[in-house]
Records
---
Amino acid sequence: MTQKFLDTSYTERDAAAVRAFYNDWAGSYEAEISENGYATPARCAAALAECVEDTSQPLLDFGCGTGLGGLAFKSAGFETIDGVDLSEAMLEQARAKGIYRNLEQIEADSTPRDGYALIAAIGVIGIGAGPISLLDTLMHALPSGGKLVFTFNDQSLADPDSTGRLNEWLDCGAARLLFSEHGAHLPARDIESTVYVVEKA
């Protein structure tokens, strides 16, 4: 019987444990989340496409996993996509899709390289993945006018620190909210998420 990882994915763990968890899950990840109706990548790609005039500029898929986000962005018209992730096993799955210009394994404290006016973090910030401080890291990496598409699932939204950190950026005028929509994430599990697109001032 194939091990089910989704049941324990929303568990607090340190960076080394996150990497080990996703390395172990890589082989069955897509099958398991697909059977639960994973809707978030397509929602993120559509939201970002709605907010961007030039889809030829490079997009960084931060925490790209097996590349499902990259597939969604490619389908939405984005032409140049790079990906980074903690898990080399996940990156192997992404590499096999042939849609990324560059793929790189990173450490938990890595800062995105300069040069990306578009960054995506799909399911990357929250319990069981990256800390809320990652939102600051990604926002600081953007140039003025750069855009970040990211998600908070229901578990993250239940933590006031998540929306609180986002509001710190918005309330002081350091960023502008372009898009926010709550909707399907894993319908079979009755889990939803909010997709945000923010523009750095």
---
Amino acid sequence: MRLIVAILIGCLAAACQATRLVKPTRSSISSISRVFGQSFLSLALMTTLQPSASFAQDQFRLPPIDRKDPNRCEMTSSSIGQANAGRDKLLDLRECDLKGKGAEGFDMSGIIASNADFSGVSFKEGQVSKGYMRNSKFVGCDFTNAVVDRVSFDGSDMKGAIFVNAVLSGTTFSDANLENTDFTDAYLGPFDLKNICLNPSLSGTNPVTKHDTKESAGCFN
């Protein structure tokens, strides 16, 4: 986009220079006007067609799923974490059925887990930093005392999930189902909290902790 603008500015500068080199006439003035008009029209069109920054940032290029690996759908922990190059391969749990499995204390940083089912999984005391966990099921999952920062739960079903005393900085829940979730004492940045409070599904009471969902998140309006 910067290159396009620079080119247009260069064209306009050249046109202005030409008017100083020759005596202005009605026809030359008309030509300059056309140049200005066409340049600004082109700029307007390209600006309109240019994807917005937020749209561009929302495009993730994920690697293909390795369906030949028989152990791909196993949750494993790393002592250092994927985000810090502690694994020899990507932790890819996309489309996996992991209902009721245990992951307490696991370090699963850098996980890719879209379109998967983690219903009932316990992530207590775990670390799930920098995770891509969109459009998945986390119904009844327990993230108590877990570090869940910079994770995308966008579009996921979080019904009845527990985030008591969890770190949720930079974590997003756009279009996620937050019914009966519990955010008691969770660390949330002001911007993150604002977005959670705007989620229309934020309602109910957690069936395990008996905490009111909106009150637990600090949303009172």
